[in-house]
Request: fold
Amino acid sequence: MLKAVGQALFSTGLQNPKFTEDEKKGQDYEIRTYHVTKWVSTSLSAMQWDAAMNTGFRRLFNYIQGNNHNKVKVEMTAPVTCRVDPGAGPACESQFTVSFYIPEEHQENPPEPSDPEVFVEHRKEFTAYVRTYGGFSNEKMKHEELQKLLESLQRDGVPYVDQPFYVVGYDSPFKLTNRRNEVWILKKEVEQQ
Reply:
């Protein structure tokens, strides 16, 4: 328990999902192709991003602490991703899917969640445009960084999908310096003729 809490608090030495970085990249973003992986996830509807992230994080932290059918503790990983499917308008709820990457030792056969609101997600390979930024991220910063990434993609004329998009965090709230946050916009796959 102490190891998991320590890792969650200080986020050092955590496993990350594997990706391949594209040699071509924009001046202010990376292009990454993430490999096929399994994640433990939970979905909820909410108006506030940060509140949704906190609720989702707590559900998933309970899973890795042994709230699963095997009563197995699962190592903390990074990043914590949040897929955002925006609501139809500013006064509408958005759909949030908060996820932890399942560590390598459990990828083949992850423990089944006990909480009915938690599920194992099978992510196919995908390519994302990634903008990285520091500091203590909040909803305003996430919106600003997402807008900057959208502007860069439009400037470069690359094919992308408007939504859903991802907001991503690598660090615990107790890490004070060298914080790493990201926004991901999915690459639109152009069909071959």
